[in-house]
Amino acid sequence: MKIFFCLCSLLYSLLSLAQNKPFIVDLEKSNEDVSLNILFDKIEYVPLETTPECFLKPGAYYYVTDKYIVAMNTFWQTYLFDRKTGKFIRGLDREGGGPDEYRRWIVYLNGLNEKRNILYANDIDKWKGYDIETGEMVDIIKKPSINNDIITVFSPWAINSNQYIGNVSAEFCKKGYRLVVFNKQGFISKVYKKENILGADVLSGDGLLIFYNYKGKLYFSRIGFNAMTYEVGDKQILPHIIFRTGNKEIPDLQLDGIPSSAVSDQINILWVGESDRFIFFKYAKGYSAMTTYNCALDKKNKKLYIPHSKKACESHYGYTNDTDGLTSVILRGMNKNGEVYGVLDVQALSEYVKLNGERGMSERGKRLVSNLMEDDNPIVVIATPKK
């Protein structure tokens, strides 16, 4: 009976894989450069207001909604800007020990529920949700637990109004768990285990996942050297995008004992998003001192674009800005409307203007740089992908 069950399970897995043939992204075979005109139909620039109350650091993380831009200096110092004007509205931090405050940090991956405009913060045994329009705490999600032991889940991704999903810590991975589905009360309704993964087990330890929805399905990408993108099915976790990186097998959890020189040429997938025509992704080479590349795969003609000719700034290769003659765009994310967003590094743009003036710039580009200061906040770029 056990053999019969195993055979049936194997057959189901093979049929699922045949019906959901994954995309192959071979990073060793592309020499196609990439520009905004190749990928996008519409480009929008939003210079963020600069004041002493909202100064952003180079590694800031962003969310872009229909009306707002949320920017945060990783974990703390979170700011709200108007999407149309870039005007600073207010800070969003509520750190503290009070009932409407949080004792840890704002969630900077999967932390914003765009449909409800709620930004979540990590507390001891719960996540607290804050309405970005009012700043008030409006939601609480209890962290899931098994046998009264709270599971370490980095962030809750909303499946619907009362269901969330997240990956578990290394401690619970040892017990076979990989993903858990839970409600606001922390009750676990579904567990995905090691045997539910069809393909490489990329969830075997601590690691960050970036979830996204596309055409009614849920996907996630594991950040790290052994990265893949998976579809979360009803019963199985299926490969969706396979990155052929040429990496040596270096487990993410063993990096602390490995010299940086040993991973200097290794590829680390940082972010993945998807539209009807393109798979957008960002990767880095190296570990401590890394160079990042903002890339795209055209699903229609299978062409892979990897920038290599123009740097957006010292350690980033972005999308060449042939639309307005500005510096390259550094990819940051994708919102629920399918808009891709990134930033122009203002310091790099200022240096570019000093060397080249306004030569080759569009009228819009000239207006953007006319009053530019090196210590200004970044210019957010919002782009609509081509169909």
Radius of gyration: 22 Å
* Fraction in beta strands: 35-45%
CATH topology, what is it called?
Neuraminidase
Termini Cα gap:
50 Å
Task: Give a short account of the largest sheet.
Answer: 6 strands, mixed
- Count up the domains: 1
Shape: globular
**Helix fraction by DSSP (H/I, runs of at least 4):** 10-25%
Q: How would you state the average pLDDT, rounded? A: 84
- In quaternary terms, these chains amount to single chain
- The CATH class is identified as Mainly Beta
- Unreliable sequence segments: 4-18, 251-258
Give the total of beta strands. 31
Structural class: mainly beta
Assigned CATH architecture: 6 Propeller
- What's the tally of helices? 5
Please explain how this structure is put together.
With 387 residues, the protein is mainly β. The protein has one domain (21-385): Neuraminidase (6 Propeller). It is built from five helices and 31 strands. The protein has helices spanning 2-19, 36-39, 170-173, 346-356, 363-369, and strands spanning 23-26, 40-47, 61-64, 68-73, 76-82, 88-91, 105-106, 112-113, 118-122, 126-131, 137-142, 145-146, 149-150, 157-160, 163-167, 177-182, 188-193, 209-214, 217-222, 228-232, 237-244, 267-274, 278-285, 291-298, 303-305, 311-313, 316-317, 319-321, 326-334, 340-344, 379-385. The strands form seven sheets. Strands 22, 23, 24, 25, 26 and 27 form a six-stranded mixed β-sheet that branches. Strands 1-21-20-19-18 form a five-stranded mixed β-sheet, with no helix packed on it. Strands 2-31-30-29-28 form a five-stranded antiparallel β-sheet. Strand 26 (311-313) and strand 27 form a beta hairpin.
